[in-house]
Specification:
The chain is built from three helices and five strands. By secondary structure, it is α+β, with helices and mostly antiparallel strands. The mean pLDDT is 93.
């Protein structure tokens, strides 16, 4: 079964918007596998602060619709989790909102 990660990006100015979305996700009733805390610094390939949401393929349509409707001005990267990090963050990825430039050197090929 393929799983997915959603990375919801924010800045210092949009952090309140990210906090609100994080709270909405927590209450939405999805069968998510993990809802990470807000990380206020770049980490891994992610160039700005973000939080992560991990979910299974069965939740993908509902989560995508939820995030697309509620993300406001936030950019969201949704990617498959296949074990091939570079592929997952490039050809296996979809963007909601503005696409950001990731640091691919931080990924395993």
């Amino acid at each position: 079964m393929i799983g997915y990660h959603a990375h919801i990006y924010y800045t210092a100015e949009t952090r309140p918007e990210a906090e609100a979305l994080h709270a909405q996700v927590a209450k939405a009733g999805f069968q998510y596998q993990y809802l990470g805390r807000l990380i206020d610094r770049p980490v891994g390939p992610h160039p700005v602060p973000m939080f992560e949401l991990d979910f299974g393929a069965e939740e993908e349509p509902a989560v995508m619709d939820f995030l697309n409707q509620r993300r406001g001005s936030l950019s969201v990267l949704v990617h498959e989790v296949t074990g091939h990090d570079l592929r997952d963050h490039t050809t296996g990825a979809r963007w909601l909102g503005q696409e950001l430039v990731l640091d691919f050197s931080a990924l395993d090929p």
